[in-house]
Inverse folding.
Protein backbone atom coordinates (compact mmCIF):
# COMPACT_ATOMS: atom_id res chain seq x y z
CA UNK A 1 0.00 0.00 0.00
CA UNK A 2 1.55 3.26 -1.10
CA UNK A 3 1.75 6.26 1.18
CA UNK A 4 0.35 9.54 -0.08
CA UNK A 5 2.42 12.53 1.02
CA UNK A 6 0.72 15.87 1.42
CA UNK A 7 2.25 18.59 -0.74
CA UNK A 8 4.60 20.93 1.09
CA UNK A 9 2.97 24.25 1.86
CA UNK A 10 4.01 27.05 -0.42
CA UNK A 11 6.46 29.41 1.20
CA UNK A 12 4.89 32.76 1.84
CA UNK A 13 6.60 35.74 0.27
CA UNK A 14 6.30 37.47 3.60
CA UNK A 15 8.47 34.77 5.22
CA UNK A 16 11.55 36.12 3.46
CA UNK A 17 13.61 37.86 6.14
CA UNK A 18 14.01 41.60 5.60
CA UNK A 19 17.37 43.02 4.65
CA UNK A 20 19.01 44.36 7.80
CA UNK A 21 20.07 47.99 7.97
CA UNK A 22 23.59 46.89 8.87
CA UNK A 23 23.74 44.89 5.64
CA UNK A 24 22.53 47.89 3.67
CA UNK A 25 25.15 50.11 5.27
CA UNK A 26 27.85 47.55 4.48
CA UNK A 27 26.72 47.52 0.84
CA UNK A 28 26.72 51.32 0.64
CA UNK A 29 30.19 51.50 2.16
CA UNK A 30 31.44 49.08 -0.48
CA UNK A 31 29.83 51.18 -3.18
CA UNK A 32 31.81 54.19 -1.97
CA UNK A 33 35.19 52.51 -2.32
CA UNK A 34 34.72 49.21 -4.17
CA UNK A 35 35.09 50.68 -7.65
CA UNK A 36 38.13 52.01 -9.44
CA UNK A 37 36.58 55.49 -9.59
CA UNK A 38 35.72 55.40 -5.88
CA UNK A 39 39.21 54.33 -4.89
CA UNK A 40 40.89 56.99 -7.01
CA UNK A 41 38.50 59.70 -5.84
CA UNK A 42 39.11 58.99 -2.16
CA UNK A 43 42.85 58.59 -2.73
CA UNK A 44 42.93 61.93 -4.54
CA UNK A 45 41.11 63.63 -1.67
CA UNK A 46 43.58 62.14 0.81
CA UNK A 47 46.60 63.24 -1.22
CA UNK A 48 45.22 66.75 -1.66
CA UNK A 49 44.52 66.98 2.07
CA UNK A 50 48.16 66.13 2.73
CA UNK A 51 49.46 68.51 0.05
CA UNK A 52 47.39 71.48 1.19
CA UNK A 53 48.13 70.79 4.86
CA UNK A 54 51.81 70.92 3.95
CA UNK A 55 51.24 74.46 2.70
CA UNK A 56 50.94 75.50 6.34
CA UNK A 57 54.72 75.22 6.56
CA UNK A 58 54.88 78.46 4.56
CA UNK A 59 53.09 80.40 7.31
CA UNK A 60 54.98 82.55 9.82
CA UNK A 61 56.64 80.33 12.42
CA UNK A 62 54.23 81.24 15.21
CA UNK A 63 51.29 80.12 13.02
CA UNK A 64 52.74 76.75 12.00
CA UNK A 65 50.81 74.89 14.69
CA UNK A 66 48.42 71.98 14.90
CA UNK A 67 45.28 74.01 14.29
CA UNK A 68 46.70 75.33 11.01
CA UNK A 69 47.35 71.82 9.68
CA UNK A 70 43.87 70.71 10.76
CA UNK A 71 42.18 73.73 9.17
CA UNK A 72 44.05 73.35 5.87
CA UNK A 73 43.46 69.61 5.57
CA UNK A 74 39.86 69.92 6.75
CA UNK A 75 39.13 72.61 4.16
CA UNK A 76 40.10 70.24 1.35
CA UNK A 77 38.11 67.36 2.81
CA UNK A 78 35.00 69.50 3.31
CA UNK A 79 35.22 70.79 -0.27
CA UNK A 80 35.83 67.52 -2.14
CA UNK A 81 34.25 64.76 -0.04
CA UNK A 82 30.71 66.06 -0.73
CA UNK A 83 31.28 64.97 -4.34
CA UNK A 84 31.42 61.37 -3.10
CA UNK A 85 28.16 61.97 -1.20
CA UNK A 86 26.56 63.34 -4.37
CA UNK A 87 27.63 60.28 -6.33
CA UNK A 88 26.28 58.00 -3.60
CA UNK A 89 22.82 59.53 -4.00
CA UNK A 90 22.78 59.90 -7.80
CA UNK A 91 24.87 57.21 -9.50
CA UNK A 92 22.22 54.50 -9.27
CA UNK A 93 19.65 56.74 -10.93
CA UNK A 94 21.97 57.62 -13.80
CA UNK A 95 23.08 54.00 -14.35
CA UNK A 96 19.68 52.38 -13.93
CA UNK A 97 20.77 50.08 -11.09
CA UNK A 98 18.29 51.81 -8.79
CA UNK A 99 15.64 49.36 -10.03
CA UNK A 100 17.55 46.48 -8.46
CA UNK A 101 18.06 48.37 -5.20
CA UNK A 102 14.41 49.25 -4.73
CA UNK A 103 13.17 45.81 -5.77
CA UNK A 104 15.34 44.17 -3.12
CA UNK A 105 14.47 46.86 -0.57
CA UNK A 106 11.09 48.43 -1.43
CA UNK A 107 11.28 50.92 1.43
CA UNK A 108 13.32 53.67 -0.19
CA UNK A 109 13.84 55.47 3.10
CA UNK A 110 15.89 52.50 4.37
CA UNK A 111 18.17 52.63 1.33
CA UNK A 112 18.67 56.37 1.68
CA UNK A 113 19.23 55.99 5.42
CA UNK A 114 21.95 53.43 4.75
CA UNK A 115 23.59 55.81 2.28
CA UNK A 116 23.58 58.60 4.87
CA UNK A 117 25.10 56.33 7.52
CA UNK A 118 27.83 55.35 5.05
CA UNK A 119 28.45 59.04 4.36
CA UNK A 120 28.79 59.71 8.11
CA UNK A 121 31.26 56.84 8.38
CA UNK A 122 33.31 58.27 5.51
CA UNK A 123 33.32 61.70 7.17
CA UNK A 124 34.51 60.14 10.42
CA UNK A 125 37.36 58.30 8.72
CA UNK A 126 38.57 61.42 6.92
CA UNK A 127 38.29 63.51 10.08
CA UNK A 128 40.58 61.02 11.81
CA UNK A 129 42.88 61.12 8.77
CA UNK A 130 43.16 64.92 8.91
CA UNK A 131 43.90 64.81 12.64
CA UNK A 132 46.55 62.13 12.06
CA UNK A 133 48.15 64.27 9.35
CA UNK A 134 48.24 67.23 11.71
CA UNK A 135 49.69 65.10 14.51
CA UNK A 136 52.52 63.98 12.20
CA UNK A 137 53.14 67.41 10.69
CA UNK A 138 53.31 69.31 13.98
CA UNK A 139 56.53 67.76 15.38
CA UNK A 140 57.99 67.84 11.88
CA UNK A 141 57.35 71.59 11.82
CA UNK A 142 59.27 72.04 15.05
CA UNK A 143 62.19 70.10 13.60
CA UNK A 144 62.22 71.92 10.25
CA UNK A 145 61.06 75.43 11.15
CA UNK A 146 62.07 75.65 14.79
CA UNK A 147 60.33 77.29 17.72
CA UNK A 148 57.73 78.69 18.11
CA UNK A 149 56.49 76.42 15.30
CA UNK A 150 55.34 72.89 16.05
CA UNK A 151 52.99 73.59 18.94
CA UNK A 152 50.11 71.12 19.29
CA UNK A 153 47.04 73.15 20.18
CA UNK A 154 44.25 70.92 18.89
CA UNK A 155 41.88 69.93 21.67
CA UNK A 156 38.86 67.66 21.85
CA UNK A 157 36.50 70.52 21.01
CA UNK A 158 38.37 71.36 17.80
CA UNK A 159 38.46 67.68 16.85
CA UNK A 160 34.68 67.50 17.24
CA UNK A 161 34.00 70.70 15.31
CA UNK A 162 36.27 69.45 12.51
CA UNK A 163 34.20 66.27 12.33
CA UNK A 164 30.97 68.27 12.38
CA UNK A 165 32.18 70.58 9.61
CA UNK A 166 33.06 67.66 7.34
CA UNK A 167 29.80 65.85 8.18
CA UNK A 168 27.64 68.90 7.40
CA UNK A 169 29.52 69.52 4.15
CA UNK A 170 28.98 65.92 3.05
CA UNK A 171 25.31 66.06 4.03
CA UNK A 172 24.97 69.20 1.93
CA UNK A 173 26.34 67.26 -1.02
CA UNK A 174 23.93 64.42 -0.30
CA UNK A 175 21.06 66.90 -0.10
CA UNK A 176 21.82 68.35 -3.52
CA UNK A 177 22.28 64.83 -4.89
CA UNK A 178 18.86 63.75 -3.61
CA UNK A 179 17.25 66.92 -4.93
CA UNK A 180 18.79 66.96 -8.42
CA UNK A 181 19.25 63.18 -8.93
CA UNK A 182 21.84 63.71 -11.64
CA UNK A 183 25.56 63.48 -10.86
CA UNK A 184 26.81 66.29 -13.09
CA UNK A 185 23.90 68.59 -12.31
CA UNK A 186 24.15 68.05 -8.56
CA UNK A 187 27.91 68.67 -8.55
CA UNK A 188 27.42 71.92 -10.47
CA UNK A 189 24.67 73.05 -8.09
CA UNK A 190 26.77 72.15 -5.05
CA UNK A 191 29.79 74.08 -6.31
CA UNK A 192 28.11 77.05 -7.98
CA UNK A 193 25.29 78.07 -5.64
CA UNK A 194 27.33 78.63 -2.46
CA UNK A 195 30.09 80.28 -4.51
CA UNK A 196 27.56 82.56 -6.19
CA UNK A 197 26.18 83.49 -2.79
CA UNK A 198 29.70 84.35 -1.60
CA UNK A 199 30.17 86.65 -4.60
CA UNK A 200 26.83 88.35 -3.97
CA UNK A 201 27.78 88.85 -0.35
CA UNK A 202 30.92 90.69 -1.41
CA UNK A 203 29.38 92.81 -4.17
CA UNK A 204 26.00 93.86 -2.78
CA UNK A 205 25.88 96.43 0.00
CA UNK A 206 24.39 95.02 3.17
CA UNK A 207 24.60 91.42 1.95
CA UNK A 208 27.68 90.79 4.07
CA UNK A 209 25.58 90.72 7.24
CA UNK A 210 23.25 88.17 5.67
CA UNK A 211 26.24 86.14 4.49
CA UNK A 212 27.27 85.64 8.10
CA UNK A 213 24.12 83.55 8.44
CA UNK A 214 23.80 81.91 5.02
CA UNK A 215 27.30 81.55 3.57
CA UNK A 216 28.62 78.11 4.49
CA UNK A 217 32.14 79.12 3.46
CA UNK A 218 32.01 81.42 6.48
CA UNK A 219 29.97 79.40 8.96
CA UNK A 220 31.53 76.00 8.28
CA UNK A 221 35.08 77.36 8.09
CA UNK A 222 34.73 78.29 11.76
CA UNK A 223 34.04 74.64 12.51
CA UNK A 224 37.10 73.50 10.58
CA UNK A 225 39.30 76.09 12.27
CA UNK A 226 37.91 75.43 15.75
CA UNK A 227 36.92 79.08 15.93
CA UNK A 228 33.30 78.85 17.11
CA UNK A 229 33.42 81.06 20.17
CA UNK A 230 29.92 82.42 20.79
CA UNK A 231 26.35 81.22 20.88
CA UNK A 232 25.56 83.60 18.03
CA UNK A 233 28.06 81.82 15.80
CA UNK A 234 26.42 78.49 16.60
CA UNK A 235 23.09 80.04 15.62
CA UNK A 236 24.60 81.15 12.31
CA UNK A 237 25.84 77.62 11.69
CA UNK A 238 22.36 76.28 12.47
CA UNK A 239 20.64 78.70 10.09
CA UNK A 240 23.03 77.99 7.22
CA UNK A 241 22.57 74.26 7.83
CA UNK A 242 18.80 74.66 7.71
CA UNK A 243 18.98 76.51 4.39
CA UNK A 244 21.68 74.48 2.62
CA UNK A 245 21.31 71.01 4.18
CA UNK A 246 17.99 70.28 5.87
CA UNK A 247 15.59 71.97 3.44
CA UNK A 248 17.22 70.59 0.25
CA UNK A 249 17.54 67.16 1.86
CA UNK A 250 13.88 67.12 2.88
CA UNK A 251 12.78 68.21 -0.60
CA UNK A 252 15.10 65.66 -2.16
CA UNK A 253 13.75 62.83 -0.03
CA UNK A 254 10.19 63.76 -1.02
CA UNK A 255 11.16 63.78 -4.69
CA UNK A 256 13.05 60.52 -4.35
CA UNK A 257 10.07 58.86 -2.71
CA UNK A 258 7.75 59.92 -5.54
CA UNK A 259 10.01 59.36 -8.53
CA UNK A 260 9.09 56.47 -10.77
CA UNK A 261 11.65 53.68 -10.85
CA UNK A 262 12.30 52.41 -14.35
Amino acid sequence: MSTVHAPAPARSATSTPPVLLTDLVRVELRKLVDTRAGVWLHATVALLCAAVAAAAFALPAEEVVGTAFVAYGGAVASLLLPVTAILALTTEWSQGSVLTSFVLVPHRSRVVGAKLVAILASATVFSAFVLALAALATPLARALVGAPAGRWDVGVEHSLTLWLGIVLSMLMGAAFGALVMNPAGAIVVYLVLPFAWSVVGQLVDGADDVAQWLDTSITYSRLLEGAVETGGQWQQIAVSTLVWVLLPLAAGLVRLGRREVR
About this structure: Residues 19-258 form one domain. The chain has a mean pLDDT of 85. The radius of gyration is 23 Å.
